[in-house]
């Protein structure tokens, strides 16, 4: 259960904006909605020293402190910080590079939540994109070990469906887990298959039944598994893109339909032999939907 405190001389942006930010955090971490607590504290002019704040900046970027359990991986924490930086920049209209954040780890045995002292026994929180809030032993077929291997970096931050063809991205592998050996010989391939997490989709927006694709009533109802919308039950995306070059732990690609900060779960070279061996058949509405996608 992350606890986030934001400090600024500016007035609070309002409960709705803070709620949207908290929902983005829970969606990213795969924990239940409402399991992120967030405060905005407005500072009086004589209670801080930060020169740019005293210079009458119209929309000062906040300073934030994030408390989360020690079980969250470094990769997840970096992902969380990037999300907060990007979302605060978008929601408040401030330069994202001016948002300062730091993380404090809650240690097992030193955290009291709902009258229980949190321990590591049976705790699955922080180990997965689809984890729980902690203290719950995940059983059955639940997947608890999906940790991003990389993140997407590009200029595409808005969740817009079309015009991905000319989007240049860098897929940057986690340097704490991988060396360049993981990418050896990948540059012999022209295209990649990328599996990623739709981290910006709130859990309460996930679709499990049928809907009109892109909510367009001119197109017929289709089950969520009969379309490729991002509001999927597990929020997992699969895409193909062109590999431009490799550079250390960076993969430079074109046409990857993933926004900045997207967690990458897997990367594979695309092999033409894995393409369909028969004629591909699809409804007419798909051709219309995809007309300007790339």
TrEMBL record:
<keyword id="KW-0949">S-adenosyl-L-methionine</keyword>
<protein>
    <recommendedName>
        <fullName>TsaA-like domain-containing protein</fullName>
    </recommendedName>
</protein>
<dbReference type="InterPro" id="IPR040372">
    <property type="entry name" value="YaeB-like"/>
</dbReference>
<dbReference type="InterPro" id="IPR023370">
    <property type="entry name" value="TrmO-like_N"/>
</dbReference>
<dbReference type="InterPro" id="IPR014347">
    <property type="entry name" value="Tautomerase/MIF_sf"/>
</dbReference>
<dbReference type="Pfam" id="PF01980">
    <property type="entry name" value="TrmO_N"/>
</dbReference>
<feature type="domain" description="TsaA-like">
    <location>
        <begin position="146"/>
        <end position="279"/>
    </location>
</feature>
<comment type="similarity">
    <text>Belongs to the tRNA methyltransferase O family.</text>
</comment>
<dbReference type="InterPro" id="IPR036413">
    <property type="entry name" value="YaeB-like_sf"/>
</dbReference>
<dbReference type="InterPro" id="IPR036414">
    <property type="entry name" value="YaeB_N_sf"/>
</dbReference>
């Amino acid at each position: 259960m992350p606890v986030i405190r934001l400090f600024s001389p500016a007035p609070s942006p309002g409960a709705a904006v803070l709620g949207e930010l908290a929902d983005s955090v829970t969606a990213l971490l795969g924990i239940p909605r409402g399991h992120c607590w967030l405060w905005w504290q407005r500072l009086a002019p004589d209670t801080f020293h930060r020169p740019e704040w005293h210079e009458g900046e119209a929309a000062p970027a906040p300073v934030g402190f994030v408390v989360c359990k020690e079980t969250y991986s470094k990769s997840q924490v970096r992902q969380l910080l990037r999300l907060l930086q990007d979302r605060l920049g978008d929601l408040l209209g401030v330069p994202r590079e001016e948002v300062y954040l730091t993380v404090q780890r809650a240690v097992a045995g030193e955290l009291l939540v709902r009258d229980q002292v949190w321990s590591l026994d049976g705790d699955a929180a922080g180990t997965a994109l689809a984890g729980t809030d902690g203290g719950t032993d995940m059983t059955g077929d639940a997947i608890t070990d999906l940790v991003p291997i990389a993140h997407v970096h590009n200029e595409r931050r808005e969740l817009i469906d079309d015009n991905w063809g000319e989007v240049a991205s860098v897929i940057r592998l986690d340097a704490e887990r991988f060396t360049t050996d993981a990418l050896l010989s990948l540059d012999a391939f022209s295209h990649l298959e990328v599996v990623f997490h739709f981290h910006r989709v709130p859990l309460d927006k996930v679709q499990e039944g049928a809907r009109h694709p892109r909510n367009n009533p001119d197109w017929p109802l289709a089950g969520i598994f009969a379309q490729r919308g991002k509001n999927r039950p597990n929020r997992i995306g699969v895409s193909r893109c062109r590999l431009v070059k490799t550079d250390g732990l960076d993969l430079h690609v074109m046409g990857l339909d993933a926004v900045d900060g997207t967690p990458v779960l897997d990367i594979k070279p695309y092999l033409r032999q894995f393409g369909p061996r028969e004629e591909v058949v699809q409804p007419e509405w798909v051709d219309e939907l995809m007309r300007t996608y790339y």
